[in-house]
Amino acid sequence: MVTPIANSRYSLHLVFSTEKPKHWVLSVIYNSQNIHLQKVLWRDLTGISTLNLPWILTGDFNAILTNEEHRGRGFDHYSIKSKIFNEFVIANHLQDFGFYGSPYTWCNNQQGLARRWARLDRFLANSDWLNNFDSYITKHLPRTASDHSPLFLNAKFFCQPKYKVFRFENYWFDYEKCHQNVYKAWSCSTNGSPMHAFNHHISKTRDYLAKWKAKGISSLDRDIGKTKEEITHLESLEASSIFFNLSSLVLRGLYSKHSALLRQNAIKWAQRARLMWLRNGDYNTSFFHKQARARNHRNKISAITDDQGNLQTDHQNIAKAFTEFYAKLWTTYSNTSIEDLIVSMPNDLPALTDRYNEILTRPVTPLEIYQTLKSMPKGKSPGPDGFNVEFYLYYWEIVKDSLLSAVSHFFQTTSLPNAWAELSLS
């Protein structure tokens, strides 16, 4: 069912009632070229965003977001409009869909130096709308009957269940059970090479923590809500005769618990948003939610062009295109041997001095590995094993001996387990 809720000379707003999402807003835009009228429209659209519903906008915005969206003379015509348009998009937490096809959606169809192109038409949406779909792509169709390109949006749901990838959460450092499980995993005896032993410890740690997370940690949002209810109840009794000193102690404990839960929730969502500047006291988790969703939108691969030039939008075909590309990239078809390469090298190649040769071939030390870990940026995505830099630094005293043996074994044998070369695409 479609219900018009507002319209003006430059916009039409419709509420759609569907199965998923249940209710969402579509705003169709045909913006004015006049900058003052554009400001009025941006202000009106900001009012629509306060409905807190999934929201998608499309049409001719008569403005661009970046310099790259314009070609030809007359960019000054768009520069101020671009600044105001960007402010509107950022203030309302909207995401641009990107596109496939021509980089421009409008052309003035003039000849020579007077010809201009611009990307004036697009789709924008808030995170509530984007999170209802697994895939969405926009195509710029040929402008055969107009100076504007038609836009085609294809949004999909993926039926297959998503594979859950293990990722270590930094807020787990607050739990004693986390430390116990890590110590337990690295206390297990192992057989095989040092690299396989290290891989065994990591695998055990991942299994223990995953089971503990499933059974031992309740939802932070649920705990925060429950704690707030308990605080509200005790605060309502403060003015009554049944509020005792014991109740006051319990209330102070709940305040401390609530503060700790907020901090853990902030750390959790800041980590997912890859925000590296989080400090104690930054508890604006709604902001972190939006940052995490925006990051997921930017990283989502909804379509890819394969080696044959075909656009693949199906989830399985996208995975197949990745696999085939890298299989060809890393497969050699040359019959040239190492000996042939050495013989073909010139004789005047520069050689390492004895000092540098000694530096490169000396055994790796624990300090070198630790300093390398400390130099790596915090808040980044974990490796295929699911553990980030913070994990290795925090548990350095537990993992260092096994990690040193594994690294030293690699430099001695140049052998790398397959699990260390894996990459997760989700």
From TrEMBL:
InterPro entries linked to this entry: Endo/exonu/phosph_ase_sf
Domain of life: Eukaryota
Gene3D superfamilies xref list: Endonuclease/exonuclease/phosphatase
Protein name: Reverse transcriptase
Species the sequence originates in: Dioscorea zingiberensis
